[in-house]
């Protein structure tokens, strides 16, 4: 009966999604037909960068269907970091662009400090052209201030707010909920710091978890303070004191202590921009948005080289699982195929593996690790770490020739756990459902969630988990050219920032994707400019993604639209279906505020 209902429900949901997609396609054709107006970059233009959308590693190139689908689903279209960096580089070399108007209010944006550092580095390079950057915001968080600190002028609305109170992170614990439901987690792990399973076993943080979290949070905060200190001319000691005392209460306080340069309304900011443009006050400013600038016919693109040599940039972003994956998840099959393509293409002289992942399936991680080893035999492979490259993400990186991380990247977490949920009490006591069956051998139903595990089965799973950890640490030690015992001293599931990982030998250097590309070119003995970048895996059309084996994109949008602020928690619980088996991943969720 349950199986029948499941198939009926799946069919109904499938028909609904199919109808929605058909509707989207129909409107997409109408939109495409009506949006044929050409976009041109006018003289004396100002590029407007507004960071109010989720920032992902790689966006979609002018995909009108993607824009339409996001608009109709009530969700903001994401924007790609690669596209942001390229846009800023193009604007630097475009004679029609005279400056950038930056709105760093992070209302709808989701981005870690490494992502913001990539953008900030691009903005710093833009300023070398002598062009201006003016920022304006109504609400500045630490992330907003970090990004805006590169600007020539930083305006705050007279009724605006600067949130300058330090960084924090919290973990949601589910043990109480599971107890009420009658669900018992069966956990097997290696590593005192492997805290990913704690939300199911505890109602608060363990001391090892608290220790590592305090350590990496302090490291990130130190980098944040130093960067802002250098840009704004405020000592790190004073910045720390301002946060401890909540001194910044009013906009005038933010100006007094130099977190912003000016207090003013949007029209006053426009007056300042006109002055920078040396433009008549009565004339309208020619603003051009990020989206329109990318569609412009006369945009002066930055030089990408004319050489036949290529460096492949393989973008691996999201949780790691077996299969094909998608834009928001790493599928081992898809990344393995991209590595093989890069390995067999004679034009590709080196590979940069761009990793933004908290980890996932240990098996899928190992599949990709093997392909990296095979690729490394033919051409250099350099890992570039983004916001996260931890656990399974580090598993991918550890086999590369070089590893480059941002100072605030979260990495390491070299540990393993296995997780199963026993729902026997939930079914029997809460729902009145019982399950019975037959088997040919004693352990044919091992891992079945409707019965209790025996002590022997628990020992079997624990030994298997320990075996995966032995393999993980041995391969990591070999890749890092370290003694395995020395490596295990800094493993045990502990999370490190990139800066800490550089000190303990888990990464080779600190820097962004440009640095990784430069290192790959150096290892391949390519001269500067004697190569072009090729991004892999090749993106599928969004319609194919939605109709494909992974419905993650549409699923995420539906959850966000109908559950609002509860969406992150529902998504976390939903993720548990992929947590069965042996996992190498970060704690349940790390969100730094």
UniProtKB/TrEMBL annotation:
Q: Which residues form the signal peptide?
A: none
Keyword check for rRNA-binding, yes or no: no
Q: Which residues cross the membrane?
A: 7-30
Which InterPro entries does the record associate with it?
Answer: ClpP/crotonase-like_dom_sf, Pept_S49_pIV, Pept_S49_SppA, Peptidase_S49, S49_SppA_67K_type_N, S49_SppA_C
Q: Which UniProt keywords apply?
A: Hydrolase, Membrane, Protease, Serine protease, Transmembrane, Transmembrane helix
Domain annotation Peptidase S49: ranges? 126-278, 375-527
The record's listing under NCBIfam families reads: SppA_67K, SppA_dom
Q: What is this protein called?
A: Signal peptide peptidase SppA
| Species, as recorded | Xanthocytophaga flava
